[in-house]
Amino acid sequence: MIHAINDALFEEMERDERVILFGEDVGTSIFGDTRGLQQKFGRERVRDTPISETVMAGMAVGAAAAGYRVICHLMYANFIYTAFDAIANQATKLRLMTNGQIRLPIVFMAVGGGGRSNSAQHSDYPHAALASLGGLYVVTPGNSGDAKGLLKSAIRCDDPVVFLQPASRGGEMGDVPDAETLIPLGKASVTKEGADVTLVAIAAMQRPALRAAAELAEEGIDVEVVDPRTVFPLDRATILDSLKKTGRLVVVDEARQAGSMANQIAAIAAGEGFRHLRARVTCITTRDLPIAYSPPLETAMIPDAARIADGIRTLMKERAA
Amino acid sequence: MFRRMMLIRKAEERLASDFKAGELPGSVHLYIGQEAVAVGICAHLAASDYITSTHRGHGHYLAKDGDLFAMFAEVRGRSSGICGGMGGSMHVADMSKGIIGANGIVGGGIGLAAGAALAAQLDGNGAVAVAFFGDGASAQGVVSEALNISALWKLPLILVCENNGYSEFSPTKAVISGNIADRGAAYGVPSVAVDGNDIAAMWQAAHEAIDRARSGDGPTLIEARTYRFHGHVEGEAGFLKSKYRTDEEVDERRDADPIKRFAAELVSRKVLDEAEIEEISREIGASVDDAADRAVNEPWPDVSSLESLEVR
Ligand SMILES: Cc1ncc(C[n+]2csc(CCOP(=O)(O)OP(=O)(O)O)c2C)c(N)n1
Fold this sequence. Notes:
Strand order of the largest sheet of chain A: 2-1-3-4-6-5-10
Strand content of chain A: 15-25%
Bound molecules: thiamine diphosphate
Oligomer: heterodimer
Number of helices of chain B: 11
Structural class of chain B: alpha/beta
Largest sheet of chain B: 6 strands, parallel
Largest interface: A-B, 36 and 42 residues
């Protein structure tokens, strides 16, 4: 996915000279997503910052208000918390408070999620907390092609966007369109069609979800996999259309369930989708705890294909009963 | 103090080789080359004093008397680790020794140390709190906030900035303006820059700062100028496209290795001879290997161990 993100950054910086990017060691590029940008576009437009997330996020807001398209790279998603004040109190609020005088074309980029024993302070997936702010798009791709098209749209968007990339998908290749493929923000996609159950899988959970779907296909369970791609605003229509077809909903998310996107999607099903439901909604999430370091504990905490498949099997049996 | 520095060195060399062998989960940031800072400071501290540390925290932990075996077990994610395998390398902590812990958030420990200093002040028992942080971390706003509030309230806080010349892959001068030690003056906080590879100088600076804190005269800022011999993170060569510092630079800095310097000093003052130093090194190396070897086959934590940690 990293190369897709890198492509998108190159193309958009090439296309619009008012796009600037800054972050800690973005020249060196720890994840590889910003690799080569500084050489290509220079140190004016691509800046290495001190470790100062508070002022970085504040500067993103100020520079965007003053006319630039700003990409603020915050490295690990947990460092969004360090930058949170400017995101939550400024970036999301200024458009409304100034009655639209201020528009903020900002992309806050970060890499989230566990799976590599990076421990609790480097493993959060905070999309739900960000989605709850209301004034900002929260985009999180599940495959490389989407990563590129979504990031390009995010950079062109006139409102703030958080672009959260799943750490565990960094090395994944997958197809990346060369052409100017833009994926609209706020539009989900159906990554596998199916008739029996709708499986909404967010970001990194796409891979185990598709794996579980393939496994279940052999058992005669036809799973439809949906990728929201943008978790705020959420594409309710795509989820509800799928639910209408299948009558069952499972949501899988690499995040805690309390106050979660999984619950939000379940609530949509229980509300607008109530008449389509033929079974209870199932949420498969991490435990309501920070992610533990020890590999066996971390593995047990993060949903995988086996847990997803089990959840769906149980749900399908309930119908028989 | 020499033994303690040697212990940190040997323990970390072992971690480096274990990491290279692919035996350690997660990421490991080594302190090799900076030992005089942690040891010079912690030599003055008791278990009732507090420290907070950084992502590069093994040295502080061991200098503050953290258990060696429990550290190795923690880095391996085992149940007998000092945090039961929950935290790992970046989070070694032992509250029974006043080690509030290593920290994955750059600057994260500084506010905590100020809070521990507040608690110590309220307790009125003369305890102090030390915040270790890096040159890179000194760009975080919390440093200014901590200087201000600790000076105002005369908190028994010692801010120890370990300036090792790099903030990840950026040279300090690219990300830090001015001299870190000059910053205290603006808040009325006594501040010194010290050769962090000189154990005697570190010990002396720490002595003065800790004395001041214990007698109720408030915080001190110490900038310890040092160097890290290993990468920012073990295995970094695997993802870096190019070098951010030359091999010659690292080699040159090795001349000022704090352990080598301390050894030479001890020999020249006839405290120890070369053979005795050799023997200490061998003996500590053996006890380190023993602890590290014992950690290898420790059991993994059980998933049920998470239950007691839930907020219910
Ligand atoms: C809030 C936050 N921002 C960024 C990082 C990523 N990061 C980890 S270590 C580091 C560099 C720290 O440099 P310094 O404070 O000089 O300590 P050193 O590594 O040199 O010991 C960075 C940027 C982090 N862990 N936390």
